[in-house]
Design goal:
Elements: E1 2-4, H1 6-14, E2 18-21, H2 25-30, E3 37-38, H3 44-47, E4 57-60, H4 65-76, E5 81-84, H5 87-93
Parallel strand pairs: 1-5, 2-3, 2-4, 4-5
Length: 107
């Protein structure tokens, strides 16, 4: 399984990366990566086909545990996916932008 750093995610986001947040909705609304799509870990098997098949998926959770499991599953389905090391704790702790609420991005 591939893991990427927060800096790699930040660079990929600048190029329009697809970020998949596998936390629960209550966690997502408390703060998420701008543009992140919410697909809770338990829903990944039923919903992974909703995600772009031809693009790398950057999978994030709170600290990295759920994202690794989701990434393993997605890779097993033939997707190009990587887990973000440290998850949202590392993302927000590094001073990167965070969106609060249910919207995916800043209005």
């Amino acid at each position: 399984m591939t893991e990427v750093s927060i800096d790699e995610l930040a660079a990929a986001r600048a190029d329009g990366a697809v970020v998949v947040d596998v936390r629960e909705p209550s966690e997502y609304v408390q703060g998420h990566v701008p543009g992140a799509v919410l697909v809770p870990l338990g829903e990944v098997p039923a919903r992974y086909r909703e995600l772009p098949a031809a693009r790398r998926l950057y999978v994030v959770c709170a600290s990295g545990n759920r994202s690794r499991r989701a990434t393993d599953y997605l890779v097993g389905q033939g997707r190009d996916a990587c887990s973000v090391q440290g998850g949202m704790a590392a993302w927000s702790g590094s001073g990167h932008p965070v969106v609060v609420g249910p919207r995916t991005d800043v209005a």
